[in-house]
Amino acid sequence: MKMIINFSVSRYLALAIKEFIHMARDRVTIGMVIGIPLIQLILFGFAINTNPRHLPTVLINADNSPQVRTLVTALQNSSYFDIQHNHISVAKADRLMQEAKVQFIIQIPANFSRKLIRGEKPDMLLITDGSDPSASAAAVSAVEYLVGHVFKDTFEKNGLAYLQNKSSSFNVVVHNRYNPEQITQYNIVPGLAGVILTMTLVMITGLAITREREQGTMESLLATPVTPLEVMLGKITPYIIVGYIQLLLIVFAAKVLFSIPILGSVLLLLVVTFPFIIANLIVGITFSTIAKTQLQAMQMTFFFFLPSILLSGFMFPFYGMPKWAQWLGEILPLTHYLRIIRGIILKGNTFETLFSSIWPILIFILIVGIICIKRYRRTL
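^ thats the sequence. predicted structure below, dont judge the formating
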């Protein structure tokens, strides 16, 4: 009661104004307060799509008849299939799917039209990339709908009315490659390795230099005869081991707990994970050189982690996002690492196949590493 009686509005306003001034001077915090909600609004509102369309598709067509052209046009008009590759070999198509550059391969045999007119119900092969089953479900349903509707007008105009009464004029053979049973864990668990490494490594290294500054040991670090590159490498080296321990735990759990078959080389996985670990550690160190406090470093970590998890293809189909979101996603190391780890575990990819996803991470390391060295201050 006495505390309420002694309450002073003027003292309260003075303290509130002081806090507003401190908050206004903290540009990093202000940027996070405004930036994070804007990122969430834009990404969830525009970039995220649970019903992906215009998915990259390879068409291998051995029957260029009017009926087949009608079928191909119907597939494109469904808006699920974006035929980006045509007149290529089966081996080239398989390579593109291994590299996660296409979601579907459509194969139409040479005698498709002849069997169609005879009422023999020819087969059309639809191969999907089962490493991301959520991206294919709606498209497969669209194809199954076309089976009974795409040729109705064609049959009527060409005197093939006897074929209209059939429930389906051709068969669609769906082959879910790399994940035939469409088990969700096959997609999620390998991807979790990249997500966990991104979150933990950026966070713990983001606190490295700010911790020195807050604990008062920064003066000793600056007094030592070391270059910025030596400081950066010295700070991240212990956490490389931490990253590998996390990766091995996840791979062990994937095999033992979730019974996920590991088709590729675990040794290759360890080798190609090294650039990804370095990329995340350098991001954390860069944040640490920019932030003045550990709180600011944590805020920057969240600022980096949120787009990574949303734009990489971990939570939502990558090719279901608009092009501008895909371009942003291609900048992030997690996008490429998801293709690497899923490629090794689910597809048995080799280093040659994976290189298209490795070199963007190396470029990211070079650019962010230069920024980090430039941002490191030799004085307080």
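The radius of gyration is 27 Å.
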